[in-house]
Amino acid sequence: MNKYETAPAGAATPTEARETIRMYPSSPAASVYHNIPTASRSFVDHLGFGEDEAVRASELSKRTGLTVREIGREVEAARRAGVPICGNSHGYFIAVVESERVACVRSLRHRVKEIARTAAALEKAELPIG
Hints:
It is built from 5 helices and 3 strands; from the N terminus they run ααβααββα. The protein is mostly helical.
């Protein structure tokens, strides 16, 4: 389902999911936080819920005092701990619907392929000396 289609009856919207997590911290939606290292929890609190609330790395840097490079490391650590952090050209956000997660995974897999192609080309490159 894309963002222009209507959600099925009873499905939570990003706003409802966000409010559920804030109101009921022990809800299944909030369970992703239990695996996050304590140091990373405050970082995750600065992320929006759903792609419409994406936050750019530069803005996260201002909010947290972390460098953009450190933001990337925090995102990676939180993802590996099970937090569904996605990113696109608008910034980072916590996925709240499957289509957001699918798009992010597709993008990451595409990047892996591009990096592998670049590495293969580098391996074949002629060195100027030697």
